[in-house]
Structures are given as C-alpha cells and as structure tokens.
Amino acid sequence: MKTVFKEDDKVFAKIKGYPAWPARVLSNDGKKYTVKFYGTGETGVVKDSDLFYYTKNKDKFQKPLKRKDYIDAFTEIEEAIEKAGGDGDPDTDSAANDSLNGTDKSIKTGKKSLGKRKSTSEKPPQEDITPKKKKPTKDSAAETPAKNAAKKKDDEETPVKKAQQRNRSQGEKSDVDEKEKPEKQTRRASQKRNKKENDDLDDQDVFPTKKTKSTKDESKEIEFVTIEGEQTSPNKRQDVDSSKEKLEEKSDELDFKVEVVSEKSLKYNITYAKHVKESESLYKGRAVEPREDYINQVLPIQLPSGTIGGLKLHTTWPLKFENEYERALYDESVALRVLEAKSEVTVSSDSSIISNPELFIPDIQMTLDEVKQRICKKEIEWKNIKLKRLTVEANLVSLDAKIRSCLGLDSANPKEAIGHLEEMRQLIFDEIMLKKHAHVVEMVRRLRKYVGNAKEWNMPEESLNEFSTQAEKVRSKAEQVYTKFKEVVKVPEDIEGGFWEAFSELLNTYREDCKGLTEEQIQLLCAEPRSRIAFLDTLDENESEKENSSEPPKAEKDGGATEVNGSAEEDH
Fold first, then answer.
1. How far apart are CA 232 and CA 425, in angstroms?
2. Cis (ω within 30 of 0) for the bond into 318?
C-alpha cells in the first residue's frame, strides 16, 4: 500500500549523493513532496518512494557520521518529534500515546528508580535489562509495542533529571551548577547516553539469551541514495527490497554511493581548464555549469591483491563556487592531484595515500568488470541523450518543411498544416535547438499573420469561406507555438522590439561563438558553443578520430597497482 505523507510529518528523505537525511514534509503536489532538511535548513523535492517515517526507520538509516549538520539534524528532528508527540506515522502514533500514559506513572517513582541506577554504574543495570522470562517470539514482541515504547519514552523524557541525579550522587556539582548548564548541551549529551542505553535494552529484551544477528552486521546495512528511489510498504521494506536496490548494495563499509570516473575524463578536465584560462573574463562572468558530483567520486585503482580501491576526488564537501572559471580550476587541481596519486600508488603499494581515508577508499566493493561496465554504461547513456536531442531537432526541421509544403503559393492544405503545427508544439526542444534552426522560429513567426493566396486561386465562395476559417486556425496554432518559443528562450520583457529582436541578438552572439567550428561540429552541438559540454564533446570527437586512425596501443604488464581504464565520456 502506498504511503501518503502529511504536512509536518517527520521523515527520512533520500537524495542522490547523501545518506537518508532527517526532514520535515512541507507540501505535496500529488506526485512529489517538498521537504525541509533538518541541520541544514535547505529544501528539496522528493518522490514518495524516497520518504520514510523517522521513528520506525531510525535504526535502519542513522549512520555513525561525525558531520556537524548530520548530528544536528537528528537532534532537531527528535526535539520536534518530542514537541509534536510523534512523527506523524499513524502506525506508531498510537503506541506513542500509550507510552505517554505509562510515562506519567514512572515519573512519580523516578527518584526510586534513579537511586537504583546510581548505586551501580553509568551502564544500564543487568537486573533491569535481562528479565527472567522465556525468549519472546516475533508475534509476542509485536503484540506489546506500547510497553516497549513506554520504557523508551520514559528514558527520553527525563535526560536532564538523570544527569542531575548522577551528579548529586557523585558530589561533583551542585543543583545551582546543574541549572546553569546550557540546556542544549545537556540534552545532546543525555540523548547520546539514552540512545546507547535504549539500544542495549531493546537488544536484550528481544534476545535475552543469545543474539541471532550481530550489531556489527546491523550497522553495515547500507541505503544507497538515488533520485529514482523505489519503495514497497514501510513495514515490509526491510524484508522485501527491489532488485535494483540489491544491485546497488555493493558495499558494507561505505556511507555513500561510490561513483567511478575514468582517467580520460580527468585529463579532459585539465585540457578544459587550459581553455578556460585563455578566456578568463568570459568564464568568470558565467554561472557554474551543472556537473555530476558525488561525495565519494573516485578514480578506481586495481591493487596487487586484485581488490579495486578508489582515489577520492573531493576532500571537502559540499562544493561551492562563484563562477565557471573557479570550478574549472578546481577540477584541474583535483585531476592533477589524483593522477599524481595514481602514479605514486602504482609505483608503491606501501604508499601513505592508501592508508589515508581522506584520499583513498581501500575497497569500493566492485569487480574490474563491474567498473568497466559502469564506465561504459555512462558513455552509452550520454550518447543516447545526444541521439535523442538530435532526433528532436530532425523532427523539428522535418515539420518545418512539411508545413511550408502544405502552405505553398500555388495551393494550400491548412488542415494538414495545423496538425503539423500541433506536433511541433508537442516537441520537447530547448534554446540551443532553436538557435541552430532559427528558420523554424522565423517561419512560425510569419504564420501568425497567414492569409494564404486565395485571390490567385479563384476559389468558389463556399471553399473560400472554409479556407478563411482554416487560415484563422493556422494563425491561432502558430501563435501557440510561438508562445512556446518565448517560454523556452528567456529574454527581458521590456526589451525594445520584443521577442524577435531579442532572439535575433542572441542568434548573433551564437553565430559569433560558432566561428571556430566546422559545419559538422555545429550540427552536432548539444549545448552553447563555448560551454563546457560542447568543449568536451568536441574534444572527445577529436580523440575518437585519432584513436580510430591509429593502431591500438599494446597492453603493458605492471606488477603494481593499476588504474582501471575507461573510454567513457562521463561527468557531463
């Protein structure tokens, strides 16, 4: 059954490149949810299949990370849940209410229980967590959620009192000193103690004699972050995973999805940076172009043992840059560092880089074939994207020719032209396509005033009336298509001469930027001529031509670590 989340529900949200992150639901547009992330204050749009209620999934998704914003996120969401009385999950809120009722009674006898606890040690007392009863079955454990929730709620609602009681029993601090402590620090410290105590209590309540699964194995459960997430039902997700998620769960040691890059792409980044430096002022004025960035983006290296490790690209996260010039220089510095590290690791397997977790992942949990397949897959995906774009452009040009043919000077078929105009309106095109084929924009612009050549055709009055009606529909449909052109090509509204004049200026700039390109390169453009994507596409085409015109290099044997080569054009 599909889970429907409500506004203000407390959840885990999965975003590509990050672990499942505590968040609050802001709104729902029917297909996706807008959420606000705790710890960072940022908002994002997430599919319902990538949202999970916080309380029941905390043990599954919480990672032992030391990032401040990650730790703060859990502190903030737990405070919000405590204040709201639950995370909004209808399956757990009833149990939470029962636990609140049970907590009132435990608070009254709190001094007595605290006295027992201080007489032993900081650890939970054995007599409390190892009840002398038979090991409960799965069914019996499921029948008493309120009882377990009450115990946990009692520990969570009195962290300050526990800390004060411990300090009084040890004679370390007075009541006045305890009150003067910042409440936030006390709460965080207490929550960490309570979390450990509650985990121990839960483990020994359910498995009082022996454990069927080690806590180490439990901590190794990895949830890789993807945009296209999938979900069964929240209660069955731990037992029934989709085949896609199983394929992605390649690592028991990593907190994030590993993304591999090829040595070729790093060398391309160095070449691109040299190109950017030649036009520094131009690229300093440009916004940062989108890239595929991952916190664990690595250059795969095959170690002598056969294990595939990874040289990490990014040593700081998140990445922030003011302009494309800064980003290009950063990519260059990363590429130079990683390629130099690759050479060092290749020469000596005892390199200090391998033992540095900030620079190297010892095992990315992939085989050599899997790495090559992933790199090859990226290349194929990018080529498919380019092919789809060029197919759309071909359809755009084809429809332009058909419309012109339907509305000739000697005869006209306005009904057919209207159909072709509607097909054109349905196409998914972008600004660069319209610049490459500006004659299409010009044709549609003129059709907004189409009246035909009826006077020269000597049409009967009845036919003339029908033609006039169809001609009006042509003008109306052309106006709709032209309006879509305006939506795709963003120009200032107050510019003198309107959209066409503004588009003409953009067209002049585009043609100026294309001066250094061949006709074939212009036809294959999938981005602005002086953009990073266009540069890398041209570079890759040139490299492919060189490779095809020369003999393939002979493989060299190397006893040290080796880089896993790939010819993919990834990271667009």
1. 38
2. yes
Contact 144, 99 (CB under 8 A): no
What one-letter code names the amino acid at 74?
F
Give the whole-angstrom CA distance, residue 44 versus residue 341: 36
Q: Which residues pair with 27 in a beta bridge?
A: 34
d(CA 340, CA 70): 32
95 and 170 Cβ atoms separated by less than 8 Å: no
Q: Tell me, what's the pLDDT at 472?
A: 94
Rounded to whole angstroms, what are the CA distances from 283 to 275, 328, 505? 10, 9, 20
Mean pLDDT in consecutive groups of 10 residues from the start of the chain, 572 residues: 86 85 89 87 86 91 84 92 89 53 39 37 38 41 41 41 42 42 45 47 37 38 36 40 41 58 93 94 92 88 86 89 95 94 81 85 88 89 90 95 91 92 94 94 95 79 87 95 93 81 93 90 90 90 74 47 50 55
Q: Is the dihedral of CA 409, 415, 416, 422 positive or negative?
A: positive
DSSP H or E segment with residue 218: helix 215-219
Instruction: Taking the CA atoms of 326, 328, 329 and 330 in sequence, report the sign of the dihedral they define.
Output: positive
Please state the φ and ψ torsions of residue 259, each to the nearest 5 degrees. Answer: -120, 125
Q: State the pLDDT at residue 239.
A: 42
Q: Hey, what amino acid is at 466?
A: E
Tokens of 274: 């040299």
Q: What is the pLDDT of residue 570?
A: 52
Residue from 266, 248, 268 nearest 258 by CA? 248
Burial class (CB in 10 A: 0-12, 13-18, 19+), 95: buried
Q: Rounded distance, CA 382 to CA 540, Å?
A: 12
SS3 407: strand
pLDDT at 1: 65
Cα–Cα distance between 24 and 43 in angstroms, integer?
9
Cβ 440 vs Cβ 478: under 8 Å:
no
What are the structure tokens assigned to 288, written together?
């940062």
d(CA 447, CA 425) in angstroms, rounded, equals 14
Backbone angles phi, psi at 447, to 5 degrees: -65, -15
CA distances from 292 to 13, 159, 260, 386, 545 (A): 20, 43, 11, 17, 26
Contacts 24+ apart (CB under 8 A), 32-36: 33/5, 35/11
Asked if residue 354 lies in contact with residue 345, where contact means CB atoms within 8 angstroms, the answer is yes
In 63-194, where do the E strands start and end? none
H-run or E-run covering 43: strand 43-47
DSSP 8-state assignment for residue 412: B
Please say whether the beta carbons of 22 and 73 come within 8 A: yes
Quick one: pLDDT at residue 429?
Answer: 92
21 contacts 32 by C-beta, under 8 angstroms = no
Domain positions in the chain are 90-212, 258-366+559-563, 379-523
CA–CA gap between residue 384 and residue 378 (Å, rounded): 10
H or E element at residue 310: strand 308-312
Strands 43-47 vs 32-37: parallel, antiparallel or unpaired: antiparallel
> What's the length of the chain?
572
Place of tokens 């999805």: 257
Strands 258-260 and 296-302: parallel
